[in-house]
Amino acid sequence: MSDPTEISSTAGTTSPSADSPRSHSVHIRTLIALIIGSTVGAGIFSLPQNVASVAGPGALLIGWVIAGVGMLSVAFVFQVLAVRRPHLDSGVYSYVRAGLGDYIGFTSAWGYWLGSVIAQVGYATLFFSTIGHYVPFFSAENRWISALSVSLLTWVIFLALTRGIRQAAFMTTATTVAKLLPIAAFILLVAFLGFSWDRFTLDFWGQDGSLGSVFDQVQGIMLFTVWVFIGVEGASVYSKQARSRNDVGRATVVGFLAVLVLLVSVSTLSYGVLTQEELAILPDNSMASVLEAVVGPWGAALISLGLCLSVLGAYVSWQMLCAEPIALMAWDGLLPRRLGAVNRAGAPWAAQLVSTAVIQLTVVIFFLNETAYVSMVQLATVLYLVPYLFSALYLVLLATRGRGVTHPHAGTRFNDSGPSVGRADNRRHLFVGLLALVYSLWLFYAADLTYVLFGALAVAPGLIPYVWTRRRARERAFNSFEWCVVAVVLAAAAYAVWGLATGALTL
Fold this sequence. Notes:
GO molecular function, one term: transmembrane transporter activity
Protein name: L-lysine transport protein
InterPro entries: AA/rel_permease1 (IPR002293), Amino_acid_antiprt (IPR004754), APC_superfamily (IPR050367)
Membrane topology: Multi-pass membrane protein
Distance between the termini: 43 Å
Oligomer: single chain
CATH architecture: Up-down Bundle
Order of helices and strands: HHHHHHHHHHHHHHHHHHHH
Keywords: Amino-acid transport, Cell membrane, Membrane, Transmembrane, Transmembrane helix, Transport
Strand content: under 5%
């Protein structure tokens, strides 16, 4: 593969404008690698145990059909918006902001950022628990050793990221290629050496245990399937730096299809090696245990190596993506401008510093509370759903009324101007938007209410810097639609605080 990026630096720039802080120079191959690198992370290695804990093979296949169609519609939402609104350079965040107002855009970026922070801690937890299986020094009994190791890894990556996006993108591309080899080996070895059709169909609908109805099983795996797809919008986040706007849409779809094939193969084939009950009690790195059952200990070692490479690559990708929402909001005046500062290497060092510090704080909180990896997954996924939901709603508004909710910055680059769309295309876009909107709402319904409430509690503090920045700029804080969202967020956050105080809610 050729040099993954040709991103030019902005020498001497400390506070770039929102219009052109960096050049359009990221190749489509790098965008696809970024999607696969940030999507295929820790989730795929724990997927056999995660889905088997709540569903049998039949429900799993139904769930993958729903997740495949739903997440493909979400991917198409970002593809369509990239074409219909080419002047919006900040991807997920700017689409929502332009269509639904400043605060909804801010909340989407804030939720995306916090989800990325929590995902970082989840990735690192799985990384060191896997190492601990082979090196007792990092075992679960030495949680503070792992916490210190996670902290050190986080700050080392921060220092690497401050050297510029070119180095970070190269690290992402290299680890993406390296980690796909063990996953491919797992699929081939299990398919040809370990898969048993009789075992796969033994309890096809999961009725022998306590999994509940097929509907309950499908509902139970929804957030796990979304978690392993998180990152499919990665190309959209970097749309400002893509060589071609069409590359953003193509990379999103190609990356999605590649990831879908990997996820379905790994989760489905595992049921042909071990029964649902056996899969459900495996450790977090359950893919290693499945391959060990087929070829022996060397298979587990191979997958563990792949997991470490995968998590390291995803860790770099997400720590890089973490800073983008903070920097973009600073450039657009929704956060203090200083947070958008860029160094001589073209890296948004201030946003990266804030993100790294919050990751460090989250490491301490989660390790003190001994929060399980699965709980981190559920909470992060709920936060990621916020920009998915509102992006789909914006596309529906575009297709039905040609514009979003009235925006306070009419006439700026955040207005609803864009290329004209024919009736046939508009109907297709409406179908895609409605499908993604219904799917996003279904995911909130399928989620554990506890994580939805804690998600609202995580989003609520963002009101403080947002309102402060709006007041300082002497601009209106909320439009009428945003006031409704604020009321819902504050009510849910208040309930979460009550639940924490009384012990009714815990992570």
